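Anyone? Bumping this.
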Amino acid sequence: VFKRFVEIGRVAFISFGPHAGKLVAIVDVIDQNRALVDGPCSGVRRQAMPFKCMQLTDFVLKFPHSARQKCVRRAWEKENINEKWAATRWAKKIEAREKKAKMTDFDRYKVMKAKKMRNRIIKHEMKKLQKLASQKGKKPEKAPKPEKAPKAEKAPKPQKAHKQEKAQKAQK
Amino acid sequence: MAGEKAAAEKKPGEKKPAKKKPGEKKPLEQKPIQKEGGEKKKKVKKHHASRNPVLARGIGRYSRSAMYARKALYKRKYTAPVTRIEKKKREKPRTTITKPVGGDKNGGSRVVKIRKMPRYYPTEDVPRKLLSHGKKPFSQHKRRLRASITPGTVLILLTGRHRGKRVVFLKQLDTGLLLVTGPLVVNRVPLRRAHQKFVIATSTKVDISGVKIPKHLTDTYFKKKRLRKPKHQEGEIFDTEKEKYEITEQRKSDQKVVDSQILARIKKVPQLRGYLRSTFCLSNGVYPHKLVF
């Protein structure tokens, strides 16, 4: 049922408070509500932190309890947590949310145009397939299957290209 | 002044015996010239500090007559340089003018005064106005401009017939209103004034560094014109007022001059033209306080 546990070395994401948005490693447990926490590579000093503001991630480091910061840092860099974190969907969602909030009026317009174009492409392909299906559908009944498969194919394709566009435009 | 001259004379006297060996003539020549220049400058510049030490605020040590003596005003009597009065006797302004008599008693001329006596003297003088501080007329008010609005910024108009349109900001006029243009071919907004308060400044900027805006585009150019010669007795007072606004040729030419320069800059930025063509609107889930413009 539970997959992520509070343990020594568990990397946690701080959701609120002064260090909101940073990653820390749990070094020791103080009592039921607090943990000794350290984030040498994310700019968080070694301190006590309540569990409530931490959200556990999938990453676990290997170091003994109450290990000093140097050891924590070594373990962190060995596992390359920063890069692994940036590759997770969680971090990407956060980043996308931030980008969306920072969009200026001009960016919003560009996104609108990109979305419109993408939807048009998709619709165009859909119509094409539907037409084929309706023509062929009178003969064999295999038509509905190929309809769905290419639809799934087509959707990710313009999606990827468009997401790249969006990311580029949002960055601009 | 006399003291200064004596001091200056002493200096060359002192230095001459000291600097004998190296390049005698040149430094000697330079020094008197420098000194003369210095003297002239000193004479003009130097003002004596107040010769009346302050005992308390507003109270000086010496009386008026003592100060007269201290400042040697008896020596200083300035009169205006004597003008060549013989040549140009100051022309007296004309008081009367002779006009020909027209109408019934034609022929001949009559003498008319140019400046006539007033036809009415009020019974009471105008009462003195109380002193006020810092109340300036509108023309002298300080004009402010938000830091987010710089030449070339894209603004969103919020009021008026062009509400929701995105428009390029050119400059701030003397009354504080913003001079703004569509450009006309893009969104049908001409050279127009907009009020700073009723405008959203976006962070999108067009580079307008080299654009020359004609100097005759001022507030008086844009001010609404009203006819002011209605013949009151006639019933139709309202017809004479200008109902229809006609675009003058000058406005069209000014528009072209400005827009051609700006359009060139707009074309350089991708998608900007389409952006200016679009209008701003809110929809579900869009909250202005959360938007970054």
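Late reply, but here is one note on the structure posted above: DSSP finds seven helices and nine strands in chain B.
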